[in-house]
Amino acid sequence: MSSKINILFVVNSMHVGGAERLAAEICKNVDKTRFNAMLCGLAGDGSLVPILEEAQVKYFKTQKKSGKDFSLPFKLRRIFRQNDIDIVHTHGQGPLLYTWMAMHLFPKPPKPLFVHSEHIDLRMEESSFPKAYLMNSVMLPATDAFVSIAEHLALVNQKDFKTIKNRITTIPNGIDVRHYESSGKNKSKMLHKELNLKPDTRIIGNISVLRPQKDHGTLVLAMKDVAQSVPNAVCVIAGAISEAKSELERLTLDLGIEKSVRFLGYRQDVPELLECFDMFVLPSLYEGLPLCLLEAGACGLPIVTTDVPGNNEFVQHGYNGLLAPPRNPEQLAQCIIRVLTEDGLSLRLGKNSRKKVEQKHEIGRMINYYNNFYERIYKKK
Questions:
Q1: Which residue stretches of the chain have pLDDT < 70?
Q2: Which domains does the chain have, with CATH numbers?
Q3: pTM over the 0.90 mark
Q4: Under 8 Å CB-to-CB from 26, ≥6 apart: which residues?
Q5: Which of 12, 94, 152, 374 is most buried (most C-beta within 10 Å)?
Q6: Does residue 212 contact residue 181 with C-beta atoms inside 8 Å?
């Protein structure tokens, strides 16, 4: 190949979410001898910027205005042309919309190849799905390929959008396990000191943004039963602050468990936090393939999560975690209590979590798939 393939990833913002983190990791790790990867965040500055700068990844900020911003397609087209972009890979609905519009501003070929990834099942967003379905029915046929981050999302999109059925490739999410040490007997006491916890405190950890999808309310409700059965257990929730925080705090007060549930806000020291946890809990209502579960698994943590697609794609009940029905605080509490009290269970689940990440979700494996995928579709151009 005479020159490198220029790939531009388009994400919603420069804030660190699952889609943004995945795009940044691909930019950082793709084969630099074959690809020149860049990233465009539609809205604002955020914690993704220093990550990209440290990795020397070229990035663009289009400074999206609130609401619909019809200047973005022109800005994107300018970026495509000035940087000779060969492949555009969008992540999420906003990037899909504005890139689709930008593609229609090219009067004639050559246009960049158009790849899209969706990180959740759009049907779960009930209020917006009818509109999203209609828009995707129009936009997705214009794409050259669709990359699914999880098997269940591939099946959903094959069913919902039959015109792209033969263009779907599944590349499961992966993480760099070198950033996460397998938890053992000598666990970090950083949080014990920070929160002034007793030395024997068992920490139940959750790292996820405070939004309805993650259903932190069910976790808080579950903690009432957990606190009665395991009095030295404390639930620690780390995630970007939203209006939901005050509601959750009121709930802890109503239940009388305000000392058993702590809110840390947004944290960048995720590996260090995970090293403080005795277990990881994710009570979400729906997911794609959450990176936080992979990170917890890489740390060798036992996991309790909800039995919904995405979560149950990584967690096998009784093997590397326990599954509870969604919106069921009683069942969630029982699973948490089992992990904290049943002899040998926590260690066995944690070891298997680390093993599964190493075997199926290590970043090198994921990047090899992306390297081959981008080269394959480029050769068909």
A1: 1-2, 126-127, 182-186
A2: 5-174+362-379 (3.40.50.2000), 177-360 (3.40.50.2000)
A3: yes
A4: 9, 37, 367, 370
A5: 374
A6: no
